[in-house]
Amino acid sequence: MNEKIRIATTSLAGCFGCHMSLLDIDERLLDLIQLVEFDRSPINDIKQVGQADVGLIEGGIANTDNLEVLEQFRSHCRILVAVGACAINGGVPAMRNQYSVKECLEESYTNCMGVENPQIPNDPEIPLLLNQVHPIHELVKVDYFLPGCPPSGDAIWTFLNELIEGRPISLPYTQIHYD
Ligand code: SF4
Fold this sequence. Notes:
The protein has 179 residues and is an alpha/beta fold. The chain has helices at 17-23, 28-35, 64-76, 85-89, 101-111, 153-164; strands at 5-11, 36-38, 52-58, 61-63, 77-83, 129-134, 144-146. The chain is built from six helices and seven strands. It starts with a strand and ends in a 15-residue tail after the last helix. Residues 14-15, 17-18, 58-59, 84-86, 91-92, 149-150 line the site of iron/sulfur cluster.
């Protein structure tokens, strides 16, 4: 029997909606686990990425922790896939790019309605925000882009099957969308 394809997944500056779409392949998950095994992923709660064939990245790069995880995935995964709008173009989190980090922090922690004891957190364990939210291709080489917010479960299923079987990726028109 051939060795199973090893897949790692992570959510950076995203909402986990793309991971929910992965689960949305429903009973086909049973077929998928005949073909793949999961490395680091919220699905199995493994915290560190090992050597993997495919890395699925949800979310863009908003802070130093996102950047570190992205670089680990790039160096450990043979094929890296930007999954969803946030990984591909920054998505909703990138809406903050028109403001400075100082303005964002003040709006969240000191100026907005209902804040009591206003103070901007400065615990050294909190990852530092980057000045801008970046799509992942601005920072590392990306092999495939799977659009959508989120891509549908069917699109993820088609994509993974074609990748596993070594065919050119060719999603049907009905599975390609950008919203
Ligand atoms: S692309 Fe959409 S569903 Fe996926 S992480 Fe971003 S906001 Fe969530």
